[in-house]
Amino acid sequence: MIRSAWVLCLALAIVSGCGPRPAATAAQADAPVELRGMFTYLADAASFLDCVTRERHPVAMEGDYLALERAYGEVRRYPAEPILVVVSGHYATRPGMEGDIPVTHLIVDRYVACYPGETCGNSDADERLEDQYWKLTRLVGEPVERPDGQREPHLVLHSNEHRLAGSGGCNRLTGSYDLRDEELTFSGVATTMMACPDAMEQEQRFLAVLRDVRFWRIHGAHLELLGPAREILARLEATPLQ
């Protein structure tokens, strides 16, 4: 009888959905995965906008949630400010606000990091390094500031001639780059000679970082430039080409 039921289930699987199905996304699996999204907290209600699915979910106050809320409270500038966060977690149903209808919640298994001043980036970004406008958002662990009246620091790697273009936040910069799989180096980087008192120190640190870059990696719409020991030197965010 058991074997007959199993055969019938297998035969009807295509039309009736009988039998196991794969999870719709990795985030819906029971095992925790790395998730990136915009976290918001206000009046005992927390929500998470997933950078991959662009879906918003409430956050369950369990697991490592308190570590996430505490880190968020330390970096937010005003109540309910959306902050980009990275967590190890998964999605699961929990009772809704009314207590009756189950709602899909984010379960934070482990808090990883907060990135104030960053967003999910360009939803059309396709994880390519070249021919993409990369806005500098973090430099040697510190958020990047954009002084009033100055252009945002950014890079564009033009694939046709392996030429680098961009801005340090004050001066235009140019140069060349060598790309071999996950290895990346910049050379011949030069800038114009404008003086910007509020941006020069950050620009000089950016130029120094470019000299030290040896590797790269992309997570969704975010690029990380890495040093010789694969330490993160800078983070950049894909935005529409300007």
- Would you tell me the structural class of the helices and strands? alpha+beta
Strand content: 35-45%
User: How are helices and strands ordered from N to C?
Assistant: HEEEHEEEEEEEEHEEE
The mean pLDDT is 85
> Kindly, what is the distance between the CA atoms of the first and last residues, rounded to a whole number of angstroms?
66 Å
Largest sheet: 9 strands, antiparallel
Rg over CA atoms = 22 Å
Query: What's the β-strand tally?
Result: 14
Q: What best-fitting shape do the alpha-carbon axes yield?
A: elongated
Count of helices? 3
Q: What level of helicity do the residues show?
A: 10-25%
Stretches with pLDDT under 50, minimum 5 residues: 1-26
Polypeptide structure, described:
- The chain is α+β, with helices and mostly antiparallel strands.
- Helix content is 16%, strand content 42%.
- A hairpin with a 5-residue loop joins strand 13 (222-226) and strand 14.
- Mean pLDDT is 85; it is low at 1-26.
Quick take:
With 242 residues, this protein is an alpha+beta fold.
Secondary-structure blueprint:
Elements: H1 2-16, E1 33-42, E2 45-50, E3 56-58, H2 65-75, E4 83-95, E5 102-115, E6 133-139, E7 142-143, E8 154-158, E9 163-167, E10 172-180, E11 183-191, H3 200-212, E12 215-219, E13 222-226, E14 232-239
Antiparallel strand pairs: 1-2, 1-4, 2-3, 4-5, 6-7, 6-8, 6-14, 8-9, 9-10, 10-11, 12-13, 13-14
Task: Describe this protein with a few key phrases.
242 residues; alpha+beta; five-stranded antiparallel sheet; 14 strands; elongated; disordered N terminus
